[in-house]
Task: structure prediction
Amino acid sequence: MAVLIHRPRNAIAPLDPLNWETAARVPFDRVKLTGPWAVRRWAISEWIDPVLDTAAVGARMSFTFEGRVLSLGLDFGKDAADFRWRLDGGDWQAMALDRPPWCGRGGWFRFVTIRDDPPPGRHDAEIEVIHGDRPECSGTNFRVAYIGIVP
Result:
């Protein structure tokens, strides 16, 4: 079960009711993995540990969450794979992140919002590793540190 952060009873109402103050994580033990994956320790940053790790194009993860936002915290760089995703059996959407010239091979923690507009409620998410097939995308590493949701 995801741990939620609750506002104290005497807290004032947020300026934006759609803020992310109740953000939570989907625990890795609630994620179904298809293909070769490993849970690895993360030595680059002391506040990211562990990560779900694969380098296999076609590897998938799926999970169910309740919420209105879905985000991933990724290890990112030129050797990172692109991915595609879909919610609730809809059409696949490719996620091709930019890799600026200063971007290294990996080690850049990047928080990527996949969707922030689905209706609140229960959703089935699927994510599949794909190769970027562009000059600036030189690898297939896919390392997920966080699966974030906002209920």
